Amino acid sequence: LRMEQDLRDAVHSGQLWPAYQPVVDLRTGDMVAVEALLRWTHPKHGEISPAEFIPLAEESELINVLGKFVLHDTTRELATLRSERGLDLSLKVNLSVRQLDDPHLIPAVRDALATTGLPPSALTLEVTESALMRDASAAAEVLTALRSLGVLLAIDDFGTGYSSLAQLRRLTLDTLKIDRSFITGIAESHNAAAIVSSIIAMAHAVNLTVVAEGVETPEELTILKELGCDQAQGYHLGKPLAATELFH
Ligand code: G
Ligand code: G
Ligand code: NA
Ligand code: MN
């Protein structure tokens, strides 16, 4: 509970900040987008992973406060980079399942775009499969409303839930992110590569852009290019960094 109070304070005292991980187009090799990944620099405990504090925030309304902060801060930063540096970069922001229940989510997204001038098509909202499973029809309604704002939608961690294919049938999405557990080993295992190849073929058949997550080696990158994957991210291409480091 101490940590929950600390987290509440952190939002207002600048301890939370977005790291940005490059997303690379596999045809051109260009960085075409960045994924915002929230970081917490705690004054006493140092860096705390979002894998710890996001689940904590999800236990209460705090996730909506964090989510709003991330949306506003990152759209502002990206809009500035685009206008002042002429960078043609898109932004990917993770949404937590609880944010889909928040009646303020849609106005908050609309407001972030209007305030910063970031074009809606330059923003992709990423939702995990497991989030979509929970209250499937309510989530679908919110996603449809978000998409009608002109933003793009991605299904994140694809393949790790137990209704991956059902989600693809049901929802209108733009991007499919192959979970990194499927990328690990594609250079060594024919079966692993064949599974990724099939996911890419299926995604393309329903007009989704495919992003491979967790690319850690040049060999994995080569195979993904051969398989026709559209975009990739991972430590081999770039770790999540503060904007000042990534865009110095
Ligand atoms: O950056 P990485 O370290 O460690 O992130 C861990 C987890 O936290 C990932 O599942 C990632 O999607 C999630 N995460 C990171 N930033 C955000 C955010 O701004 N919002 C939400 N909902 N999840 C995030
Ligand atoms: O759940 P989501 O896909 O949003 O979270 C991305 C997570 O994966 C973050 O924690 C990010 O730091 C991490 N990540 C990004 N690239 C790599 C990578 O190449 N290898 C590993 N192990 N983790 C990565
Ligand atoms: Na993500
Ligand atoms: Mn993922």
Automatic annotation (TrEMBL):
<protein>
    <submittedName>
        <fullName>EAL domain-containing protein</fullName>
    </submittedName>
</protein>
<feature type="domain" description="EAL">
    <location>
        <begin position="1"/>
        <end position="248"/>
    </location>
</feature>
